[in-house]
Amino acid sequence: MRRLSAATEGVLVTGRIHIDLFSTLDGVSQAPGGPEEDTDGGFRFGGWQAPLIDEADGAQIMAGIQTMDALLLGRRTYDIFAGYWPDQLDGSASEIAHKFDAIPKYVVSRGTPDLTWRDSHQLGRDLAAELAVLRGRHEEIHVIGSIDFARTLVADGLFDQLNLWVYPIVLGAGKRLFPPDGPPASLELLGAGTPSEKGTILLRYGWKGSTPETGDMT
């Protein structure tokens, strides 16, 4: 493991940062993948995505994975991925496992994580400068899950595209990308995928600003 330098002088910033999130209709993105993924707050519905995924959204997810050339993850998501994907290189999900294994993994953490997964690197404290380095180094950088980290990126406008898969289910309590206490943000719709047979739709958003416009309907 090595710490990525935050030096940005001479860096040509060209790459794009994508945030990939799975969300319920009421905005919950906590633990879509499995019961033990994230039980914070006594969350009871871990694995809620599994019964709703089908070929259409699976193909959309895979298309994004195929184009990425770097992963950017929060500490919790990195630990989950590092504990699972290296063991899937010969399994049914080997295409995803080989892709993740082959590309650099960048981890945002205030601590000193044990980054044993191949080609893993910890980012420093100056996030904006670090992301400028990554943009100069890669073309398609994807943040998968990592809800707390994704909140920071959205709050500061440090992303290019939010890929939000919205599933037809309501859970009530749970972690959300947009919590009730803000901060505010203004987004623009860049496009949408074809709804799946089970009712999931991919919405693609770009950043507009941190001050939403208001008006008077009268």
Automatic annotation (TrEMBL):
<dbReference type="InterPro" id="IPR024072">
    <property type="entry name" value="DHFR-like_dom_sf"/>
</dbReference>
<feature type="domain" description="Bacterial bifunctional deaminase-reductase C-terminal">
    <location>
        <begin position="19"/>
        <end position="190"/>
    </location>
</feature>
<dbReference type="Pfam" id="PF01872">
    <property type="entry name" value="RibD_C"/>
</dbReference>
<dbReference type="InterPro" id="IPR002734">
    <property type="entry name" value="RibDG_C"/>
</dbReference>
<protein>
    <submittedName>
        <fullName>Deaminase</fullName>
    </submittedName>
</protein>
